[in-house]
Amino acid sequence: MNASRRLFFVFAALVLAGQASLLCGHSSPLYGQDANDSTRQDAFGSDSLRQGTAGTGTAGTGTAGTGTAGTGTAGTESVTREGMGGGIDTRASTQTKPPRAPVISAFAVIGNEVTQPEIIVRELPMEVGDTIDLEEIEFAKSRIYSLGLFTRVDISWPPLDSTTLIIEVEERWYLYPVPMAGIVERDWEHWYFGLGVKHDNFRGWNEKIFAGFVLGYNPWVSLSYSNPWILGDDQFFTTTGFSWSRVENKSQESRGEGPNFDEIHYAVSEMFGKRLDAYHSVWSFLAYNYIEVTENRTGRTLDPSGIDRFLSVGFGAAHDTRNLQEYPTSGIYSSATITKKGFGIGEVDMVSYSLDMRAYQPVYRDVSLGVRFFTRLSSGPAIPNYAHHFFGFSERIRGHFHRELEGENSAAAFAELRIPIVKELYITVPEVPIRQFATWKLGFYAALFADIGTVWDRHDRPADTDLPRGYGAGLHFLFPYGVVLRLDRAWNEYGVGEWIIDVGASF
Fold first, then answer.
1. Are 50 and 72 a contacting pair, CB within 8 Å?
2. How far is CA 310 from the centre of its chain?
3. Beta strands at 103-110 and 162-171: parallel, antiparallel or unpaired
């Protein structure tokens, strides 16, 4: 086995591990002025569903953009996949601004062997009749890349007064009948492993299908289907999921002084939403949950039998203008949800609220400052311990990375300065035997950060002193297929330091 093939298999293993931790040929038509303004929304439900439990938490929204899709205009037949051989320099043209800003007369997509061109065009923030703006072009490239369907995105145009915007993509590998392995809730001591089948671009319409199971820590079985574009121009989306999981109890209040126990979760959920415009979406969801503890004691469930059953109905809204979902450096993301749990079935009767606000602002050249604030609140006669909010698991405070905090409500704020060392680097390895893995997009950033957070119960007020907080610096590595690996050094308010190795952007 030669060196390039060995390197490819190492890279493939990294990508598959990253994909598991996230659990989850057409011609080049022209899109002219008579637009079919269909758009995309990629919502996948709660974090628990992504980890194998179809839950009732905050629905996540994917990147979204606008575009103009319709019939081609006369005289544009030359801008096709074959026509690209006529000497257009697709890479150099994005580097030099023409003397006069050309007007966009049409869009052309090439390289999309599986993906429908409408999926790509509707992500563009510009329309036919707009003039070309280099900042908008870079933003459009990031939005298309954030679909998670491509290894490379380039946008170019012939230097004409009225020109066609040419979007050239290289597609990822979409079907994964592969083994899965990863860490649970950012803890390197808790591993899972299993088998699954994942299709990230079913039928070329960005539909996602997943079926799989894992063993190890917190085993689960999950089936899910999401469609970001149903009912044509009405711009609706939907997600359906079923899951079973066995989860180790997180609540110290439920555990007490004895040995810990597990919770058995069954859940069926359905989400239905509508994208209002390029950056705004709303949704509702319905779920049935069954939660049973392996060792029943008073307080571990609201029902004395040790089994809670309840229906949940929720509503949410989101605003998303981030440039790159996997590691944003500009834009705003905000989401809010309200969920009513319990409608006369069982003992559960509560309402949960969540608000998540994130902003990313370039401050000097490509240096970007990101800030995040979130809060999660609960109300009702009684809040089951398994519905408490925690730090030290999926949410963590750097400087107190392994410290577990528990309460009926939570809030936190984070700030991170992202400093590019290598902002974006494409590497093509022609010796790689699978074409979809031959193009690698890499990045390398330094970061300075500060985190603070707290928890409290309904009848208490959040503390305004001695809040757990930390600060530090890190190196962040961006790998193909959306994999981010972070090496951080953090100190808490007492000056005690810790090393952190984590997967994924901090926010």
1. no
2. 28
3. parallel
Residue 386: inside a domain, yes or no? yes
Q: Does some domain include residue 153?
A: no
Which residues does 250 contact at the CB level (< 8 Å), separation at least 6?
Answer: 386, 388, 390, 393, 404, 406
Neighbouring CB atoms inside 10 A of 50's CB total: 21
| pLDDT average per 10 residues of sequence, the chain (507 residues) | 48 48 39 34 33 37 36 33 35 49 94 93 91 92 91 93 94 84 91 93 94 96 95 89 97 91 98 91 97 94 96 97 94 98 90 98 96 97 96 97 96 98 91 84 97 93 84 96 95 97 96
Strand partners, 451: 414, 470
Q: Phi-psi bin for 226: left (phi > 0), alpha (psi -120 to 50), beta?
A: beta
Sheet strand arrangement including 30-31: 30-31, 103-110, 162-171, 150-156
What's the structural domain count of the chain?
1
Tell me, yes or no, whether 301 lies in a domain: yes
CATH of the domain at 10: 2.40.160.50
Residue with tokens 């290289």: 170
CB–CB of 69/122 below 8 Å?
A: yes
What's the domain range around 458?
A: 3-66+173-503
Is 332 domain-assigned? yes
| Contacts of range 207-215, beta carbons closer than 8 Å, 24 or more positions apart | 208/24, 208/42, 208/44, 210/23, 210/24, 212/23, 212/180, 214/52, 214/180
